[in-house]
Amino acid sequence: MDELEIKTIFVLLNADPSFSITSPWDKKYNCIAWALMFDDRWIEPSGYQLDGVFIFWPSEVSKSYSIVAYRELFEHYGYEVCQSLLPEEGYRKVALYQDTDNTCTHASRLKSDGKWTSKLGQNEDIQHLNPQMLEGKDYGKLAYIMRKQVDTPVLNTSPLRDRKSSKQKKKKKQQQSSKKNKKK
User: Fold this and answer.
1) Which of 5, 83, 139, 150 is at a distance of 20 to 30 A from 90, taking alpha carbons?
2) E strand or H helix that includes residue 80
3) Under 8 Å between Cβ of 24 and 165
C-alpha cells in the first residue's frame, strides 16, 4: 500500500505529522509479532499454513481471536495491563485493539522515541503519533494498554535488526562504485 491508501483506510493519519511508512511489504510477520518484537513469524491462533511463513501460537494460551486471549498472549510474554500510553523508563508498551465483537484486530508498540509503530497485516510497518490514530472501522477501538518491564533501558535502544534491506545497502554500494568509476 502507498501512503494515500493507508491514509484512506486510517483517516486520522491525515492529521498525523509523524506518520510514515518505515519498512517494505513483508508477509513473514504480522502486527502481533511486530508488537512482541518478532519479525520472523506470524502470531495467530488459526493453525493455517501460509507458504513460507512460520505461524506460531503458544500452547499455554487459549486458541481464540478474542481480545481476552490476546491479552493472555501478551501476559504470557510478561506484559501487564496499565493505564498510561506515555513512555515509562524501564518499560516497553503495546496497545491492543478490538472490534465490536470483542475480537482482537490489531496491536501497536511504543518506540523509544515516543512514537508508535504498527505492522499493517502483510503490508508495511508504519510510524504514527499515538494508538488512537488507527482507531476506526478497520481496527475498532483501543482495548488494552500493556507494559513489560525490560532489563535494558527502552529509550535509545533498538533490539530489532537493522530494518534496511540488503538490497538497499547493495544498491547504495553500487551507486558509490559507479561514481568512482566515472571519475577515473
Assistant:
1) 139
2) strand 80-82
3) yes
Cell numbers 519498512: residue: 23
pLDDT tens for 16-57 read 999 999 999 998 899 999 999 999 889 999 877 777 788 889
156-177 residue pLDDT tens: 333 444 444 444 444 445 555 5
73 CB contacts (<8 Å, ≥6 apart)? 32, 43, 57, 58, 61
Domains in the chain: boundaries: 3-183
Q: What distances in angstroms separate CA 8 from CA 31, 108, 117, 140, 183, one per listed residue? A: 19, 19, 18, 15, 46
**The three three-digit cell numbers of residue 45, written as one number:** 491462533
**What is the tens place of the pLDDT at every residue in 73-87?**
999 999 999 999 999
Q: How far apart are CA 11 and CA 46, in angstroms?
A: 29
Q: Which has the closest alpha carbon to 108: 95, 99, 120?
A: 95
CA-CA distance, 115 to 169, in Å (whole number)? 26
- Which amino acid makes up residue 139? Y
